[in-house]
Amino acid sequence: MNYDHLLHYLTMPVLWHGLWLAVVIAVCSFGAALVPALLVAIARMSNNALLRGLPTPFIWVMRGTPVLLQLLFWYNVLPLLGLRLSALMTAILGLALNEVAFMAEIFRGGLQSVKRTQRDAAAALGLTPFMVMARVVLPQALRAIAPAMGNEAITVLKNTSLASVITVGELTLTSEQVVSTNFEYVEVFTAAGLLYLLATTAISLAQRYFENRLNYERHTTPLGPRSSAPTADAVGTASTAQARLPLSEAPHPAARPAPSGQTFVEIRHVRKSFHGNLILRDITLKLDQGEMVFLIGPSGSGKTTLLRTINHLESIDSGEILVNGQHIGYRQTSAGLRPSRSAARDRARVGVGMVFQHFNLFDHMTVLENIVEAPIRVHGIDRATAYREARELLAWAGLSEHEQRYPHQLSGGQQQRIAIIRAVATHPKLILFDEPTSALDPELVNEVLVLMRKLAAAGMTMVIVSHEIVFARDWADRIVFMEDGQIVEQGSPSELFNRPKSARTRAFIELVEGRLGHHTEPTPIEAAQ
Ligand SMILES: Nc1ncnc2c1ncn2[C@@H]1O[C@H](COP(=O)(O)OP(=O)(O)OP(=O)(O)O)[C@@H](O)[C@H]1O
């Protein structure tokens, strides 16, 4: 090889122009494919069979035929259809269409890799389906998508050489033209190869940069305050949270205000089945404002399903549920109740929060970002106020030092307390707790229960699926025992725990208390009643 000649070709303007055209085609076709590919991916995940099936033939054809053939096809067929595009535009269009098919599958894989529980948590906070996608699912999916997208960008750049068959003067065609004049195959094609390598290396570096940025698990604390988060100094020390919630460290059950007597949740004849299996069989239940109700019962009895129907995380087959006199996810029409698309808005309007068994904090957000997400995005609270309230709630729960941490940097107990704060930050009137302590090590359970006691002492209306019998005995207004999708029995803790009417209830309570090493003597609170 003649290195002087290689250097000459490496700096040859006509080859750089070829590289420039290759980059333009790659960037334009890649960029043009992004949004359609995302839409195709979302359609492919839809519950609607028509939407799901619509893009399938397109993906099948694009993935199953050579790109070279596709480019020749568009170049010759588009003019016959009356669409006269330049060779460059035809190349961009042809490569973009091919990319839509491949990228859609990459997006779909990434979107499906995000746990459903993350969507549930976002929906329960009142985020609309669009916000759930934009704020929670997509940012997390990008992490899974980035490596494959980096590969795809490199493939597109290399595929630009195929545009030479439709006379686009990109780098491959240009180098062939140079070779045809001087026959210096080795030097010219080596120079072209090095120029391609330059571009693909730049893409690889960009890919590594984005992967690092998206990998929130690499972040370590302390991170310091982020510029986007108003600092504690900037937001002052007003005490909205304190005004809302009493802050005594270990509230006594006697401090809990009595329920108002006004119905707050009304569940009427609700039936719910999954795949033909009836899970809830004609459930009717009322809850008063300020009431604290425990749902207990054997595994599979439908407790979680019932809880999730209250805020419409699960639809119902028949019956109706009113929260503060309003439907969530349904609207009343002259023909009866009809599903509506406004479940997110309804949840926010009614003021219902939810705490999940596995915490479901948003993995890609810090503690503070988790807490302010719904107040800012759903309730339109200004950032300074949202951050101030979030910090006050963190102080209230003794978690201030963790505000810049990511969920994976916290213990289960800390994550669950933050999940409770995240729910409280939306000023809910009702909080649903789905086995909030059952995923925790025993020594972490109490720190979560302390926070729940504080909420109870503040008079919060709460529905709790839990077998924390001691907590339920002291604090619950009512215990509801469910079995096989039905309410078997309900009553005050002392009625249900000490004098159960049903043999099934008695057997279940004995089982749980036996497992916990408790017996059915009345607690001091019960004794005083
Ligand atoms: N999305 C779903 N699809 C199909 N079946 C489901 C779904 N969710 C729940 N089920 C079924 O419904 C029944 C009741 O489940 P649910 O979680 O409500 O019970 P549970 O009383 O809360 O039980 P556990 O105490 O074990 O959580 C179970 O048989 C479960 O397998």
UniProtKB/TrEMBL annotation:
It comes from the Bacteria. Keywords: Amino-acid transport, ATP-binding, Cell membrane, Membrane, Nucleotide-binding, Transmembrane, Transmembrane helix, Transport. The keyword Ribonucleoprotein does not apply. The chain crosses the membrane at residues 20-42, 81-101. GO terms for cellular component: ATP-binding cassette (ABC) transporter complex. Pfam families: ABC_tran, BPD_transp_1. Residues 19-207 form the ABC transmembrane type-1 domain. It is a multi-pass membrane protein; Peripheral membrane protein. The keyword Membrane applies. It is found in: Cell inner membrane; Cell membrane. GO terms for molecular function: ATP binding; ATP hydrolysis activity; transmembrane transporter activity. Residues 265-509 form the ABC transporter domain. Residues 220-240 are annotated as: Disordered. Its main location: membrane. Gene3D superfamilies: MetI-like, P-loop containing nucleotide triphosphate hydrolases. One of its GO terms (biological process) is amino acid transport. PANTHER family: AMINO ACID IMPORT ATP-BINDING PROTEIN, GLUTAMATE_ASPARTATE IMPORT ATP-BINDING PROTEIN GLTL. Belongs to the ABC transporter superfamily. This is Polar amino acid ABC transporter permease.
